[in-house]
């Protein structure tokens, strides 16, 4: 019964499939970006809660369906077949508020088990993306596009832009925040949009004039 009692209610729920993130905003102004893996390993279903060991191997799991449960929560279906967990609004809020400490505790348990995550195993695998440039970027960079190998630290649009700034300090002013829009595979992105091997990223300036180097 307690699972159905709620204090806070969501005002927006958005699934970003490419980034494997459920973004949820609540009536008190709180906003959380909850990875699908996080939601899956902290599922509330009995068969998950009663396991002797934490759920593993879900680094690439994604949500395939979101089904409202009355006025109190959601049932999430995952692409690994798990579809029996219901998340009340309070549960989702608590998962958001305690995300950092929950995730660290989970990682500690995996380390104690000697489990190596899929992301760790793939950490040394080169990832190559294509960058497309427009308007003043073409003139300033003297190229319309380039194919680059990105380091393991580049995991999303935000870290990609940071890497582009560091790659050439003399051109860092060209990649100022809010001076351009970014698309990933022809879809407008968010700062948290995931970057994967083979992606095509376009940088589209919002002004015809290049930022001035200071």
Produce a short descriptive summary.
The protein has 214 residues and is α+β, with helices and mostly antiparallel strands.
N-to-C CA distance = 60 Å
Nearest-integer average pLDDT:
89
Protein structure class? alpha+beta
Rg (CA only): 20 Å
Q: Output the CATH topology of the largest domain.
A: NE0471 N-terminal domain-like
CATH class of the largest domain reads Alpha Beta
Bin the helical content: 25-40%
Uncertain regions: pLDDT < 50 for 5+ in a row? Answer: none
In words, what does this structure look like?
With 214 residues, the protein is α+β, with helices and mostly antiparallel strands. The chain folds into 2 domains: 2-120, NE0471 N-terminal domain-like (2-Layer Sandwich), CATH 3.30.2020; 127-205, Ubiquitin-like (UB roll). The chain contains 7 helices and 11 strands. The chain has helices at 36-41, 46-49, 89-97, 99-113, 118-121, 136-141, 157-167, and strands at residues 10-16, 21-26, 31-35, 63-69, 73-78, 85-88, 127-133, 145-150, 180-184, 187-188, 200-205. The protein has a 5-stranded mixed beta sheet. Strand 4 (63-69) and strand 5 form a beta hairpin. The termini are far apart. The mean pLDDT is 89.
